[in-house]
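Lab channel / #folding
Pinned by the channel admin:
"Please post every new chain as: sequence first, then the structure tokens as a reply. Keep commentary short and put observations after the output so the thread stays searchable."

First post following the new format, from NK:
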Amino acid sequence: MLSYRHGFHAGNHADVLKHFVLIELLNYLGQKDTAYTYVDTHSGAGLYSLDTGYAMKNAEYETGIGPLWERDDVPAALQEYMNLVKGMNPSGKMRYYPGSPYCANEVMRSQDRLRLFELHPSEIKILSENFRKLEAHKAEQGERQTVRGKRIMINAGDGFEGLKAILPPPSRRGLVLIDPPYEVKDDYRRVKVCLEDALLRFPTGTYAVWYPVLSRIESKQLPERLKRIPSNGWLNVTLSISGPNPDGFGLHSSGMFIINPPWTLEATLREVMPYLVRVLGKDVSAKYEIESGETVTVKVKSPVRAPVDRSARGTGRAGSPATAGTGRPQVGSLRTSNANKGGARTGAAPVASRDLGQGKRTARPANLSKTRSR
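Reply from TO:
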């Protein structure tokens, strides 16, 4: 199906979780000098307008980047994400929101490669045009590519299938982001099949899967099925800003499932997730969950794959140390935080002066194409 347009959902709570985690994963890969490759199987348009077009219909950014925009108490680990978004809004007004390809390009170095896939015919045109203008602007500023070969390659096609041809990457280092729209039930199956195939081709790669947390059985089963894929370890984090709507519509919760995660990620999530629950949470059902483990193959008469939990897990107040031996994932909720019921968005202090010059800012977002309603 080609009816999905991410512009309707740009900047919502799911995007905050996805892009914050994405930046953390890319920064970890960037700690070594060796180049790495970033692959996005469902890239979208790369950049979205929040004050026109699709985003204005439901204003979902008010569940995500909106409440964070004027905060002056953002945790240090979340600050780079905020600086990146604010950097593309130099006027100080929240007008544009970056998609995953733009976030990745801003974080990655000149020697690193991007491989972007998009199937939607309208989105791929906007994505290509946005990056064409971005590279033209860099050239005007005197920036020249220092490595041989094309740094950014944009492919019009199915990312699930296209991934097979580019793994493993030349440097044997890389991150793959898989976030299909899940409009059709088969997307859940294809995610698992895609990961199983990718890990055979590139077992040391890092893989991040975004998924919605819905009432449908396929959504509930997906993380449990991913835990059983043989790998060197996994981490699963979910963010819920409220309980389900009575009519069953709307996205209130989403997750990021990471295979072969960096060892630093879990501690960072324990620092940031309680804050996101407090600021983005709408009612006492707001919560986060973090679980991690590894999958091993036990040899008996025939190979039997069994998930083995390796983390210290438990329950308690948001952000408190996990209690070992409970057999349950670490959970934090708005109910157990200091936030008032229903008041997670209130009480923000005036904006303190910030240095928004951190990191490179190479584009003029106002000149880039945006997704707009027809």
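NK: DSSP finds ten helices and twelve strands in the chain.
TO: also worth noting, The domain at 6-224+240-250+340-367 is CATH 3.40.50.150 (Rossmann fold).
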